[in-house]
Write a structure and sequence with these properties.
The protein is of the alpha/beta class and 187 residues long. It has one domain (2-179): 3-Layer(aba) Sandwich (Rossmann fold). Helix content is 26%, strand content 29%. It has helices at residues 2-11, 24-34, 49-53, 74-80, 109-112, 130-136, 139-142; strands spanning 15-20, 39-43, 62-66, 83-87, 90-92, 97-100, 116-122, 126-127, 148-150, 155-157, 163-165, 172-179. The longest helix is centred in the first third of the chain and has 11 residues, at 24-34. The protein is globular.
């Protein structure tokens, strides 16, 4: 499943970086710095915050907590934020799709507004197909008000079929695929 997910994501210009569970924050900071990311938005009360805040990055990128209502900092968000990092609920190997369930701690705009979206996905949260993801995660009993299925960076084509990236959202999608299974193998 890992190989299939990675191939499908890379086919649509997303990047997948396999990462050990205890090193993903450092890998994230390294990937962000390599892109020249100056500010990295993260959910201050989200599931990634404790690990992310423990990383020493020499201020590059500067970690920016999402801890203010969007109305109070729209300009900073839309103009000054280079990238954001979110957790993810799962991945679908068959289509190369990331499953995001936005929350107040990691709202939808974090994956839609900044030019670069980093997502952290555990290998144990990969599913062979959409039906399996819905069944295993029991969506019927706990459907969120907003589920996002992301298959690559934002893209759009004009009438002449010229494909452009980043027109209506992030121009880059970078997934840190965290190996959280001891002895996990490629599948």
């Amino acid at each position: 499943m890992i190989r299939r997910f990675t191939e499908r994501m890379e086919a649509v210009r997303a990047e997948v970086h396999p990462t050990a569970a205890d090193h993903w924050p450092e890998r994230l900071v390294h990937l962000a710095a390599a892109r020249g990311v100056r500010s990295l938005l993260y959910g201050a009360d989200g599931p990634l915050a404790p690990r992310l805040e423990s990383v020493q990055s020499d201020g590059k990128p500067r970690l920016v907590p999402y801890d203010t209502p969007v109305e109070a900092w729209k300009e900073r968000l839309f103009i000054d934020t280079d990238a954001a990092v979110t957790s993810s609920l799962g991945g679908i190997a068959e289509t190369g799709t990331l499953i995001l369930w936005p929350t107040p701690q990691e709202p939808r705009l974090m994956s839609l507004v900044p030019p670069v979206h980093f997502a952290v996905l555990a290998t144990s949260d990969l599913h062979p197909n959409f039906a399996a993801a819905m069944a295993e995660q029991q969506w019927a009993g706990q459907m969120p008000t907003n589920a996002l299925l992301v298959s690559g960076p934002s893209k759009s084509a004009d009438i002449e079929q010229t494909l452009a990236y980043g027109v209506h959202g992030p121009r880059e999608l970078v997934i840190l695929l965290v190996d959280d299974q001891t002895g996990a193998t490629e599948g």
